């Protein structure tokens, strides 16, 4: 019994952390561009271990660009080897503006490119414009040569935002449309803009299309085929109950989720939002058959939003179960502006979030800004608790649009940069903006580096009190001054951080029995406690 009491006394002493913060290092980077604007929309892994960087360009032959511009903007894809060597690049466009929004690798090891086109039958474009802007999809062979292409649209503006190859070898396309019945559109508009969903066969021939919307703006940003052969559609909406929308707007734009069957008929829809603008960007079906939704939000606590805004806009991530019930939501940001672009569930069942930030150190942002916009990467655990973040940038605008996990704790980032050599950027700009591809490695602080000393004089214990110890479901903290606190595992991994306050509660019911640390972020003082059930 004396030994047990001694151990408990030892672990309730105050420790000082040496290198507890996550170490995120750049292992390589590459700037790819021409003499004008080149903006990367997405980055994907290829079957040969390389990557495809896909976006749009207004550059002529210059820098890494080997073909001239066709119009004011063209689809531009760059194939890279596993080591980052450029194997080929392709410029594809008509005489006007053609912007590639998304791309996938297909089952035959080729690629499908999808985006928005203003061009008629000019340059590489073999179909006439339907009116305004149209969906434009292009099937490439493995070597980047065009196999076929399709234009879909009505007489107004139609923009393709997401694509997936389906289980039958065909494709599902999603975006938004302002068109009534005309061209390839078989249903009238429901409001200002609508979800527009198109199913094609393996050769890009349309099988059916569906229009969903309310009386205002509705647009798809992301979609996936579900295990039952249907589809989950995610986008933003400011429509009230009308058309296919079964719930009123919560305020400004909201996330709008629509589930359809394999024929495109609606099964259910769900509106998720707060009292201001919530801009949906991305969804993924999670390993537990639920959904993770990501975007950026200006809302405070209201509607479905459980945390206040940190600044102008913040990352807003919402986890749903398989029945679309909200399990948790997280607001992540600094005191200025953050805009979210993409996410991925990671091998440890957590989530990696990508976008850009203009904030200094504040809120969840642990590093100062480098320039104007910076790449901002955020890692969450499976319960949405904040693990770590990383700010990467040069002296100008750097916008992160894509992130992929290479293997555990290794990620590849893709976006576009206006920066020259400055701060984290080691290569000169080729023009106005360039593709910027960055590889990073996260190193978890080892336990041996976590605790640097156990001081004899423990007067810093007076800075805070923690109870109960051992804890079971909740840990309460009382501090003499308002401060932010971080909970760490016994290996020094940051598990969650609370906002600055004198009285705080950490929910610890999801963590296994063991030894944990609480750190007062402003002073570095820490206390150890035990979770025991």
Major sheet attributes: 6 strands, antiparallel
- What is the CATH-assigned architecture of the largest domain? 7 Propeller
Percent helix = under 10%
CATH topology (fold) name of the largest domain: Methylamine Dehydrogenase, Chain H
- Largest sheet, spatial ordering of strands: 30-1-37-36-33-34
Query: What's the N-to-C terminus distance?
Result: 19 Å
Structural class: mainly beta
Fraction in beta strands: over 45%
Number of helices: 2
Protein name: T9SS type A sorting domain-containing protein
Keywords: Signal
Signal peptide: 1-22
Domain Secretion system C-terminal sorting: 466-531
Structure write-up:
The structure is a single chain. This protein is mostly beta strands. It folds into 2 domains: 38-399, YVTN repeat-like/Quinoprotein amine dehydrogenase (Methylamine Dehydrogenase, Chain H, 7 Propeller); 451-531, Immunoglobulin-like (Sandwich), CATH 2.60.40. It contains 2 helices and 37 strands. The strands form 9 sheets. It has a 6-stranded antiparallel sheet with strand order 30-1-37-36-33-34. Strands 2-29-28-27 form a 4-stranded antiparallel sheet, with no helix packed on it. The protein is globular and about 75 Å long. Residues 1-22 form the signal peptide. This is T9SS type A sorting domain-containing protein.
């Amino acid at each position: 019994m004396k030994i047990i009491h001694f151990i408990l006394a030892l672990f309730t002493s105050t420790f000082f952390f040496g290198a507890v913060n996550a170490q995120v290092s750049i292992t390589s980077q590459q700037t790819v561009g021409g003499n004008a604007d080149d903006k990367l929309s997405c980055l994907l892994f290829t079957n040969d271990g390389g990557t495809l960087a896909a976006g749009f360009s207004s550059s002529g032959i210059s820098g890494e660009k080997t073909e001239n511009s066709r119009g004011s903007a063209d689809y531009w894809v760059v194939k890279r080897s596993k080591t980052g060597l450029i194997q080929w690049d392709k410029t594809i466009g008509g005489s006007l503006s053609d912007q590639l929004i998304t791309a996938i690798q297909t089952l035959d090891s080729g690629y499908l490119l999808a985006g928005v086109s203003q061009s008629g039958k000019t340059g590489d474009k073999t179909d006439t414009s339907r009116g305004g802007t149209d969906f434009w999809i292009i099937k490439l062979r493995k070597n980047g040569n065009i196999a076929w292409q399709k234009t879909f649209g009505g007489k107004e503006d139609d923009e393709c935002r997401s694509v997936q190859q389906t289980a039958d070898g065909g494709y599902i396309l999603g975006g938004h449309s302002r068109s009534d019945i005309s061209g390839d559109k078989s249903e009238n508009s429901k409001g200002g803009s609508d979800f527009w969903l198109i199913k094609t066969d393996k050769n890009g021939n349309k099988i059916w299309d569906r229009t969903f919307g309310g009386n205002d703006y509705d647009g798809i940003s992301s979609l996936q085929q579900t295990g039952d052969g249907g589809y989950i559609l995610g986008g933003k909406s400011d429509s009230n109950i009308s058309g296919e929308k079964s719930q009123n707007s919560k305020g400004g734009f909201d996330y709008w989720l629509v589930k359809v069957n394999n024929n495109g008929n609606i099964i259910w829809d769900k509106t998720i939002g707060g009292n201001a603008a919530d801009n949906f960007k991305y969804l993924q079906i999670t390993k537990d058959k639920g959904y993770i939704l990501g975007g950026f939000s200006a809302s405070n606590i209201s509607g479905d939003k459980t945390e206040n805004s940190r600044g102008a806009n913040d990352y807003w991530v919402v986890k749903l179960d398989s029945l679309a019930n909200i399990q948790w939501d997280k607001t992540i940001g600094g005191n200025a502006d953050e805009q979210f672009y993409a996410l991925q569930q990671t091998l440890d069942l957590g989530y990696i979030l990508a976008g850009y930030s203009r904030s200094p150190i504040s809120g969840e942002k642990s590093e100062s800004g480098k320039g104007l916009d910076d790449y901002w990467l955020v890692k969450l655990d499976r319960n949405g608790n904040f693990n770590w973040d990383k700010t990467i940038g040069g002296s100008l605008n750097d916008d992160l649009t894509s992130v992929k996990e290479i293997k555990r704790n290794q990620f590849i980032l893709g976006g576009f940069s206006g920066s020259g050599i400055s701060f984290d950027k080691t290569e000169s700009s080729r023009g106005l903006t360039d593709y910027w591809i960055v590889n990073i490695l996260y190193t978890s602080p080892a336990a041996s580096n976590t605790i640097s000393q156990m001081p004899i004089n423990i007067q810093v214990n007076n800075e805070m009190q923690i109870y109960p110890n051992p804890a079971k479901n909740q840990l309460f903290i009382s501090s003499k001054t308002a401060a932010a606190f971080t909970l760490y595992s016994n290996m020094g991994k940051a598990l969650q951080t609370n906002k600055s306050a004198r009285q705080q509660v950490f929910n610890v019911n999801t963590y296994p029995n063991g030894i944990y640390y609480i750190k007062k972020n402003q002073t570095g003082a820490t206390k150890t406690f035990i979770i025991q059930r």
